Every structure is written in structure tokens, then in C-alpha cells.
Amino acid sequence: MKKFYQTEWQGIHFSSFHPTSSKTLAGAEFYDAFYRALFEIYPDYAALDVDWRRSKDEITDWLASTVPDGARVLSVGCGLGYMEQQLWRQHGGRIELHVQNYASQALQWLRQVLPPDRIHDAGGGRDWGV
After folding, report:
1. To which H or E segment does residue 86 belong?
2. 89, 109, 116, 94: which is closest to 10 by C-alpha?
3. Together in a domain, 62 and 115
4. Which of 1, 70, 31 is nearest to 12 (CA)?
5. CB 130 within 8 A of CB 106
6. 63-122 pLDDT, tens digit each
7. Euclidean distance between CA atoms 19 and 36, whole angstroms
8. Is 35's pLDDT higher than 70?
9. Collapsing DSSP states into helix, strand and coil, what is residue 12?
């Protein structure tokens, strides 16, 4: 089996901001550094690659069609939170959406969309209370 390691995402090469290794898993420090680099380049979700957003929109639409009204949804490891913000904007009135992420920096854009009590920062050691 051939091993595959991702070396960039959204046009940002990981080695440009953090040492990388095929023997070490990325942790919170890596992800916080990545999201700081991403936010320096992209001002908001709309600036991200349109094909990437379209593929995420398709998944979000499918997910929304499977979630019943009144459902409590928890997205663990939401990353940038693109799909979650789309879900919230389009269906937030009919579901209770909560997000959790380990890298605090990743939640920067999502904090502008979701109410604070719906965002759970696992890196900050907070009790979810969900």
C-alpha cells in the first residue's frame, strides 16, 4: 500500500508555516498555525475555492434533508466550519446546531455566524454542556 500525506490545503503549503513530518500527527499547534495562515490570505468563506464550496454545499444539502425538525446536531471536529455555517444559515431555525473543534483559531469565521453558546472549544478545556 502506498502512503499518502497531504502537504497543502486551500493553496497553503504546510511546510510554509510549521515543520511537517510523516511520522508525527498534526496537533492543535499545527492547526492553529494553519488557520492563522489561512485567515491572512482569505477574508471570509466566499473567498475560498468555488468548486470546494460547491462540493461542501452538496453535502450540506444532503445532510439537511436527513435531519428532522427539532434535532440537536453536534459537529465534532468541524474545522473551518463552512458546512456548519451553511447549515445554520439555511436551516438554523429548525435545528439546534452545536459545533466543537480542537483548534481555537479555526472557529474565527464561525464565531461571526453562530451564537456563542453553540460553539464549544475543545482546546480551551470547556465543558460542552450539550
Report:
1. helix 82-91
2. 109
3. yes
4. 31
5. no
6. 999 999 999 999 998 989 999 999 999 998 899 999 998 888 899 999 999 999 999 887
7. 15
8. yes
9. strand
Strands (E), 3-129: 8-9, 12-13, 72-76, 96-101, 119-121
Residue 128 has pLDDT above 60, yes or no: no
Torsion 58-63-69-71 (CA) sign: negative
Phi-psi category of residue 70: left, alpha or beta, with phi > 0 → left and psi -120 to 50 → alpha: left
1, part of any domain: no
Cβ neighbors of 101 (< 8 A, separation 6 or more) are 77, 78, 79, 81, 107, 121, 122, 123
Q: How many domains does the structure of the chain reveal?
A: 2
* Per-residue CA distances from 61 to 5, 9, 122 (Å): 29, 23, 27
Q: Supply the pTM of this predicted model.
A: 0.84
Residues 54 and 116 in one domain: yes
The reply to whether 29 and 83 lie within a common domain is: no
DSSP string, 23-59: TS---HHHHHHHHHHHHHH-SSGGGS-HHHHHHHHHH
Instruction: Tell me what the mean pLDDT of segment 54-59 comes to.
Output: 97
